[in-house]
Amino acid sequence: GKTLLAKATAGEAGVPFYFVSGSEFVEMFVGVGAARVRDLFKTARENAPSIVFIDEIDAVGKARQKGNFSGANDERENTLNQILVEMDGFTPSDHVVVLAGTNRPDILDKALLRPGRFDRHIDIDKPELEGRKAIFAVHLAKLKLSNKIFDLKNRLAALTPGFSGADIANVCNEAALIAARNDDTSVKLNHFEQAIERVIGGVERKSKLLNPEEKRVVAYHEAGHAICGWYFRYADPLLKVSIIPRGQGALGYAQYLPGDIFLLSEQQLKDRITMSLGGRVSEELHFDTVTSGASDDFKKVTNMATAMVTQLGMSPKIGWINYQKKSESDLTKPFSDDTGDIIDSEVQRIVNECYERCKKLLQEKAADVEKVAQLLLSKEVLTREDMIAMLGKRPFPERNDAFDKYLNESETKKLEDQEQDHKNTPPPATAE
Ligand code: ZN
Q1: Least confident span in 170-179, 291-300, 407-416
Q2: Residue from 380, 188, 351, 174 nearest 280 by CA
Q3: What is the pLDDT of residues 118-173, one digit of tens each?
Q4: Which residues of 95-121 are buried (b: 16+ CB within 10 A; e: fewer)?
Q5: How confident is the model at residue 381 (pLDDT cuts 50, 70, 90)?
Q6: Is 403 in contact with 158 (CB distance < 8 Å)?
Q7: What are the φ and ψ backbone dihedral angles of 428, each rounded to 5 degrees?
Q8: Annotated active-site residue in 75, 174, 222, 346
Q9: 253 CA distance to ligand 1 centroid (A)?
Q10: Less packed terminus of the chain by CB within 10 Å, N or C?
Q11: 222 Cα to the center of ligand 1, angstroms
Q12: Which of 197-206, 312-321, 401-410, 415-424 has the lowest mean pLDDT?
């Protein structure tokens, strides 16, 4: 997103654009970084009016440390000093605009942010639905698409909540690679779907074979999550469950659509915790022993429950206090030992309550868990349509607008049929 925005600025201004990455200044050799900075600004001045964009400026612009005895960062500091000097040296008639991008504004040296240097700050959040549509439009324009896909950018934008601009570029690239690997002459919708799964869950590892017993455990584990997601009102809508192993140790995988949410209610958090526990609880209910497969789930559960108690004021015993640490490296606890004990017990209480809810639901819906697990064992991948066919429609309206608008599959099928003879709507000439 940042990079596209900087390029768009240069395009609109119609002036020379100098793009460098902060890491290009970082060199082993003393003085090289500073010399490069001098060259860059000299070129920019000579070709003024012009725009300089330094991406990942944190590579050189990290806060200088006091009492640095190792000398290891001297070169970086020289480079940073040179940037500061160059930016001070501009006169109003120089007509050079300097932009910089970073993902870590918090670690930048304060001197960089002073007036006259980088003093205008634009926060760019992860794109929302409309933003994702526009970014997809940019990247899709470069691909050779199958002309049967209706409403492609809207659907892809709806499928990718929480994706950054770089993730979206990655999806488009992966989809093209998948299409090429399958000897297709154009990129089709299912290539994009596979690419999205790959970006979220890692590569499918077809070579990694689970033995039948392991497969059963994974199927019941994922079925537990899926049933919780289906019957808890505020859980995120489920898109797909699979028991094909993926990269980084994930044995099963479920894709949800969280939607662009800015406020989470207490009930939503509890439903999410309960759903995360669903995998382990289902294992407990169906097997004599449990497996290590739930450790990631527990990490999420612990993070959510701890946040509820220490940051979000959702524990009556702790009250309305935010105990969040100021930084990762902060070793002191911002609360007393007694409060620490209460926090522990409150986190325990929340998780236990959710556990009981989860167990109750999965026992009540044991027949449904069985159905989902069996179908997973035979098909390996279940879509939302499969779930609806088995369990009926979800008993609550979906809260994700984009979901209803773009992902209603039967609707889409109808549209696709109508579109068969039509040409795909051409991508807009410019990004809206
Ligand atoms: Zn799980």
Answers
A1: 407-416
A2: 351
A3: 888 888 778 888 888 988 888 888 888 877 666 788 888 888 888 888 889 999 99
A4: ebbbbbbbeeeeebbebbeeeebbeee
A5: confident
A6: yes
A7: -60, 145
A8: 222
A9: 8
A10: C
A11: 6
A12: 415-424
Interval between CA 402 and ligand 1 midpoint (Å):
26
DSSP 259-328: -S-S---HHHHHHHHHHHHHHHHHHHHHSSS--GGGHHHHHHHHHHHHHHHHTS---TTT-S-----SST
Q: Identify which of 216, 221, 228, 217 has the alpha carbon closest to the alpha carbon of residue 365.
A: 228
Check residues 430 and 145 and name the one with the higher pLDDT: 145
What is the mean predicted confidence (pLDDT) over 48-74?
A: 72
Closest CA to 424 of 195, 187, 193: 187
What is the rounded average pLDDT of the residues 189-213?
A: 79
In order of 104, 214, 223, 380, the CA distances from 253 in angstroms are 30, 15, 11, 11
Cα distances (Å, whole numbers) of residue 54 to 32, 74, 378:
17, 20, 52
Closest CA to 166 of 121, 123, 127, 129: 127
Ligand 1 mean position, distance from CA 257 (Å): 16
Reading the block at residue 323, the tokens are: 């105990």
Q: How many A from CA of 107 to the centre of ligand 1? A: 35
Query: What percent of the chain is helix, strand and coil (3-state, nearest 5)?
Result: 55, 10, 40
Confidence at residue 91, expressed as pLDDT on a 0 to 100 scale: 76
222 is a catalytic site residue:
yes
For residue 240, report the distance from its CA to the centre of ligand 1, in Å. 14
Inter-axis angle of helices 212-231 and 366-379, nearest 10:
130
Average pLDDT over the chain, rounded to an integer = 81
- pLDDT tens for residues 320-375? 888 877 666 667 788 888 999 999 999 999 999 999 999 999 999 999 999 999 99
In the β-sheet with 96-100, what is the strand arrangement from edge to edge? 17-21, 50-55, 96-100
- CA-wise closest residue to 170 among 400, 381, 403, 1: 1
Cα 171 to the center of its chain, rounded Å: 12
Q: How far is the CA of 225 from the centre of ligand 1 (A)?
A: 7
What residues does the ion ligand 1 have nearby, CB within 5 Å? 279, 297
Percent of the chain with pLDDT over 70: 83
Cα–Cα distance, 154 to 136 (Å, whole number): 9
